[in-house]
Amino acid sequence: MHWERFENNRDYQIRNKAVKLLERLKIDISSAIDISKVIKQMNKNITWEFVNLEGLPGFTCYNRKKNKYKMFLDEGTSERCLERIIFTMAHELGHIVLGHFGSYDNSTYITNRRLEDEANIFADELLMPTAPIVNKNMTPEQICKTYLVSESAAKNKIKYIQRNTLYRETNQITSLIAKHIDSYEVLYRKSLDAYNERVLNDYLDKWLDPDYILK
Fold it and tell me: Domains of the chain (ranges plus CATH)?
């Protein structure tokens, strides 16, 4: 089996940042992730405000002098589709955690497609943790119900799961363990068969002895 290494894979690094953040904050990943709780517990200068953005879900401004971040979220989108606002908050948090504001003061200026994709990967992992989804073999419907995300987000989680490096790593480890277990079972059976044959032959020899008393 070809052993794939993930340490230098950007997808893996980003997903691990989300995983480690949830672990550090002791967030329960068996149910919906409270993004506001995550942000509040991070001990960073991050706040948010609902305003009329006329349909734009949201963006983040960075005050470089005070090292403060403020998310502006569309109140209309929040009323129509709360899941969209939650994903937007997780996406914007991704820009912050991944250090994308090094050259920007406003996330609307981030037009680099790679940085947008990175923020989406972070939001995907933060709101829909891969480990429990894979371990429980969840369907998109179950993901929606468990993590309170949109139907499209849940479907994309499964649709693109083969690209997910945490999923690939889990499969790789599982395959390796299964291979070792199979090898162990073969050796165990051979050893057990040899032991049984030895014991049986020993008793047969003794039973052939007229003076042997079975205890």
Answer: 10-162 (1.10.10.2910)
